[in-house]
Structure formats: C-alpha cells, structure tokens
Design brief:
heterodimer, A: alpha/beta, BirA Bifunctional Protein, domain 2, eight-stranded mixed beta sheet, three-stranded antiparallel beta sheet, about 40% helix, elongated, B: alpha/beta, D-Maltodextrin-Binding Protein, domain 2, 9 helices
Chain lengths: ~400, ~220
C-alpha cells in the first residue's frame, strides 16, 4: 500500500481561505458568547474513558479509544457537554450557581452525523448550569439562533420538542416499556404506518390513537401546543406543553418566532435529555447544524446535582452550508510585500523600517528576502494576490 | 425544487405512476434516455435514478430530498431518515431459507451456521439480537439460492416474493425475519423542515393515492 502520507478517513486539512473564514467566525461567536456572560473553558482533548463509558450518554462504538502507558482507557473528546459537566461537578464543585460556560473545540467521533460524517469537526457551544425553567431554556435557544446568524446563515429553522411530552403521553396511555420503545422508533422516523399498527395492536381508542399519531405529524407553533392541550391529562405532559408555550413567548419577545417551530415528534437523544430539545437546520446540508436541550441529570452523575441546558453548533457543517449557499470566500493574502536589493548598502534597514511602520498601522506586510529584482518581486506579488509591492534599490543620503 | 431519488427499475416506474396520479407532472422522469438526472424546471421536480441500495444514502446526506426505496434496503442501510409512507407495492418478506430437511427445528441444531445473504446487517441483527447466536455471514451480490445448493452456506437470508425460485431449487422458507417489506417514501430530516411547504402536500397527496390503490386491491 505504500506510505500513508495522507490524512486518515474522516479527517482533512483546512486550507487558508476556509481556515480564515472559520477563525473569523470563531472569533465572532466567541465575542457573542462573551457578550451574554458565558466564559470560555478548554477541556482536554483526551479524557479517561470513564466519563463517557460509565455514563451512558453517548454510543460507545462512536468513541475514539486508546490506552495510556498504564493500560487505562482514554477517549478523544466526543462532545463539549460531558466534559463541561465533569468540570462543573468536580473542578467547580464549590462555585456558586448558575454557571455560564462556553467552548469552541474539535470533537472526535467515529462515523457520526454530528459533523456530517466527518470524524473530526469543530463545535461551538454553551452550557447554562444550575438553572431550571423555561426562561433558561429560552435564553439558550435564543443564543443558538444568534450564533447561527453570526456565522452568516440567515435562512434557518429551529425545531423545538419536549421529551416529557412523549413520556407523559406514554404514561397516560399506560403503554409498557417495550411497546414504548417501538413507538419511540416509529415517531423518530415519522413512520405513521408503524405507529398506527401498534396503536391498533394495543387496542387504543380512536381518540388516543389520534393523540399518538399527532406526535410525528405536527409542525407549527402555538397551534400544535393547543391541539395537544385538550388531549393530555398526564401532569408531566402538561408541564411539557407549558414549557414549550413559555419558550415561544420569549422567542416572540426576541422577535425570533419566525425561526422556530414546535415539532412534538423530535425525540433524538431522549435518554440524555430530560426536558426541552431542539435542533437547528439550514439549506444545503442534510444534517442539523445545531443540537441542544435540557439534561438535568448529566452533571449529577459526576457528583454535583444541577440543572443544565445547552446547545452546540457544528461550525464545520455551518461553513459547508454557507459555501454551498453561494458565499464567496475571500482570498487570503498579505496586503503588501517589500523587497530590497541586498547589494545596496542600507536597503535592508530601509525595507525593515518601512515594513515595521506599516505593520504598526495594521497593514499586513511580507518582508521579502528572496528576490533581487523588482520584476521578480512583482510577479510573485501578482501570483499571490498581494496588491501593494515595494522594492528598495536606492537609499537616499542620510538614511544609512 | 425537490430532488427525488428513485430506485432504478420497476420500483421507479411504479413510483412515477403514483406521482402522476397524485397530480405531479413526471414527463421528465419518463424520458427514455441514459441520463441519470431527469429534470423539468417548470414542474419544480428533479429525479435522480440510482441503484436501490444507494437511495437511502442520497437522501440521508440531503443530496436528494425524498426517495422511493424498498423496506429491505432501508433496514439494511440503517440510515437516519424519515420513513413517511408505505406505498404498498413491491410487497415481499425477508426470510431464512434453506434445504427442506432443515425445517421442523433441525435448523436450530446446526452449530456455527453459515449464512449467505445480500443483507449482512439485517442478518447479523436478526441472529445476534433476536436469536442470540453468532453466525458466519457470507456476503453475496446475487443468485443467493445457489449458496446452499453448492455447499457455500447452510442457509440464506433473502427476500421472498412468491417463493417460486425457492421451490424450483428445492429450497423452502425456514423462518421469517421480517414481513411487510414493501416500497417506502423516505425524506431527508432537514428537507422535511426546510422544504415542508413543498414536501408535506406531496406526502398528503401520495397518501390519498395509496389509500385509493389499497381499496381497489381489496375489492
């Protein structure tokens, strides 16, 4: 097979134009998070496997695993939430609540859709820890919307679901765990045929059957919540409806109602999430670019109980979307290049002082040491899109 | 513009027929040519003709918004899709089949079963997940019935429509892995949200046609 002098499956280089665009987006997002009082942390790229394998939050087969020199299991950072939860419960165990944490990091997953099937991708996300309630949920969803817009995407949709609505309805209809799992899968894939069959098998009344069938079908805002209102009696399900309504109210206050819709069939990751869940979509990528929700049990696993809600944006997917939506990336080049004739006494010193002067004013300057004629320097500047080119081959009296 | 991925062959023809009944102009899709993308900007529909096993991939990545594909292919591919309509045609079941003398419990007595199939993932999850045993899976791409006849495998896992191929080769169904295999409409999860104004009415219209079709069959 020869030497593998290329990148592994699922990993790739980021070229200057994309890299510049991405870093620029990262700094805008970092600033945005900061403006909302979220402080950035960096967690290690490698953690003990226990934080993932003993918590059941993520599928084990998607983790990059290896061992340290003592044979202990290590994992590459899979997400931002679990390390942040470990951090909040251990390093920050005495810190007063609420905590507002943010991260912009690369994540590593085997064959997973978080990065559009790339194994390494960048996520920007926040965690709001130690606050329950719809207002906290809404704060996070609003910031998710702002973050998407900040990357340069204006055509976006956020779907909001609630884990407790599904759980409450299952409870209300007296459905056992095995059937609930089947129903869960059917709703997840919007398979109303399978759903109808299982409803008939369970002998549900027409009315109850309809309630179940409304889960994968619905998409709207207040109308969807109202449609469920008259059908649910389970307290958990009622609280889920209240929660979604309150979130919509806050979205309205932000002027974000146009971006959000309620999808009662949105369930993915319901084992991990305990309340609201949401996903963000845009055109030209087949996977959600934002994923988030409330997971009140995640931090407790590490030893300190606290409510938690957060989101992550796949910056890698967002950038793919922006480019496919037709954005032109700016070419990356220095503003100016300065060369000098090394045989002329004092030319180097003059070039150096000129370059330093321009850099102080914020102009990016290459001080060239390669070319000995103005023509050569000119053609190099042309080839590399450098607009200003100076060549110093005479030095005035008194300058040296 | 909606992009629809069709499984080349009979399934594509039936899907087009149904779309036409539902009021969609599919003239472009019926064009007899070797083109792989058939498009009519005036109707807002673009068809791509793909190998059946590739349809779930096109739809999962969002390269196509919708697809029409057999449930067997969907089960095997295990992609994250919305599976919105059972079209009812292309009906068959997925079975374990083998020599007749393996019926009546004898099949279960074979240790370390060798199984030939086009569906390694379904076969693995059936034997490991449901029957709780590990088996040797031999992936083949066609004429699966040959494998037990020639001694390559003990049994096969394959789709059975009428059962005629099995009978003509002295094979029989031993166990059913999944029944109710038929053509399904699948939708990309993002398209469902971002293009819901086009996709949802299409689903509704197709469902109406499927109901009519099913009622005609019953009569």
């Amino acid at each position: 097979m020869g030497n593998k002098f290329y990148t592994p499956d699922g990993f790739c280089d980021t070229l200057p134009e994309v890299c510049a665009f991405k870093k620029e987006a990262e700094s805008r997002i970092r600033r945005l998070f900061g403006l909302h009082g979220y402080t950035e942390i960096e967690t290690p790229g490698v953690e003990y496997g226990d934080i993932y394998t003993k918590t059941d939050f993520v599928p084990e087969e998607e983790l990059y695993k290896f061992t340290d020199h003592k044979g202990r299991l290590l994992c590459a950072r899979y997400d931002g939430t679990v390390p942040a939860a470990r951090f909040a419960a251990t390093v920050y165990k005495n810190e007063s609540l609420p905590l507002r944490l943010s991260y912009i990091e690369n994540m590593y997953r085997f064959n997973q859709s978080g990065g559009g099937k790339q194994s390494e991708f960048t996520q920007a996300g926040i965690e709001l820890m130690g606050v329950a309630g719809s207002d906290a949920d809404a704060e996070v969803i609003a910031l998710a919307i702002k973050t998407i817009i900040e990357t340069g995407i204006d055509d976006l949709q956020i779907s909001i679901g609630q884990v407790k609505l599904f759980k409450g309805i299952i409870n209300q209809l007296g459905i056992n765990d095995e059937d609930a799992q089947f129903i869960y899968n059917a709703i997840e894939s919007k398979d109303s045929v399978a759903l109808e069959k299982v409803a008939t098998k369970l002998g549900l009344s027409d009315d109850d059957k309809q309630t179940l069938l409304m889960l994968p079908e619905g998409q709207g805002t207040y109308d969807i919540i109202d449609a469920f209102r008259s059908r649910v009696t389970d307290l958990e399900a009622i609280s889920a409806l209240d929660n979604m309504k309150e979130i919509l109210d806050v979205m309205d206050e932000y002027g974000y109602l146009k971006y959000v819709s309620v999808d009662p069939g949105l369930l993915s990751g319901a084992d991990y999430y305990t309340g609201v869940i949401f996903k963000g979509y845009t055109y030209e990528v087949g996977f959600p670019i934002v994923s988030g929700g409330r997971y009140d049990n995640a931090v407790g696993v590490f030893g300190r109980d606290m409510e938690c809600v957060g989101f992550s944006l796949s910056l890698s997917l967002a950038i793919t979307a922006i480019m496919r939506q037709g954005a032109e990336l700016e070419t990356v080049a220095a503003d100016a290049i300065i060369g000098y004739d090394s045989s002329v006494k004092g030319a180097r010193a003059a070039a150096l002082s000129m370059a330093e002067g321009m850099r102080l004013e914020g102009t990016s300057v290459i001080l060239d040491t390669t070319f000995n004629t103005a023509e050569e320097l000119d053609s190099y500047a042309d080839a590399n899109n450098i607009s200003a080119c100076f060549f110093i081959d005479t030095v005035e009296e008194g300058q040296n | 513009m909606l992009t629809i991925a069709l499984s080349k062959g009979r399934l594509a023809e039936q899907a087009i027929e149904l779309l036409e009944k539902a009021g969609y102009d599919c003239t472009a899709a019926k064009e007899k040519s070797r083109k792989l993308i058939l498009e009519d900007p005036s109707t807002g529909l673009r068809f791509i003709l793909a190998k059946p096993t590739d349809v779930p991939t096109y739809v999962e990545y969002g390269a196509a918004d919708l697809g029409v594909v057999g449930k067997d292919t969907l089960l095997e591919a295990g992609r994250q899709l919305y599976e919105v309509i059972d079209l009812g045609f292309g009906k068959c079941r997925l079975c374990v089949a083998g020599p007749k003398n393996l019926k009546d419990g004898k099949f279960d007595l074979i240790p370390n079963k060798r199984i030939a199939t086009k569906y390694p993932n379904i076969t693995r999850s059936y034997f490991e997940g449901i029957k709780k045993e590990s088996v040797e899976i031999i992936k083949l791409n066609g004429s699966i019935e040959l494998a037990p006849l020639i001694g390559l495998a003990d049994v096969i896992v394959d789709i059975v429509e009428s059962g005629r191929t099995l009978i003509e080769n002295d094979l029989d169904v031993i166990e059913t892995v999944a029944d109710n295999i038929s053509a399904r409409v699948v939708v990309n999860r993002v398209s469902m949200k971002m293009k819901s104004e086009e996709i949802r009415p299409m689903i509704e219209k197709l469902k109406v046609q499927v109901d009519i079709m099913n009622k005609e069959k019953e009569q």
